Task: structure prediction
Amino acid sequence: MEDILKFFSDNREMFYFVILSIFVGVEVIGGVPTVLHTPLMSGANAIHGVVIVGAIYVMLKMDTNDVLALSLGFLAVLLGTLNVVGGFVVTDRMLEMFKKKK
Result:
């Protein structure tokens, strides 16, 4: 328990930054008009592609005995991949709406 409290006290600024980033992200996303959500999702797909590559790179550098770090890395890769695939599916469906019908 002491180690956990020490970790939180040593990394207090990081936790403040993450919490502030969440609030700023919610406000920014909430202010975007509905018409722009799909084009912005395409941009987010590219960002999540970078997240996937970064998570794989970090997992390669981890100690093979560190199960928690490898599990979190696997979860990051899995969720990032789901986000990229889902974003491309939605973008493809949106682009289908603009094609001329035969």
User: Anything to note?
Assistant: Residues 36-102 form one domain. Residues 67-97 form the longest helix (31 residues). The chain has four helices and no strands.
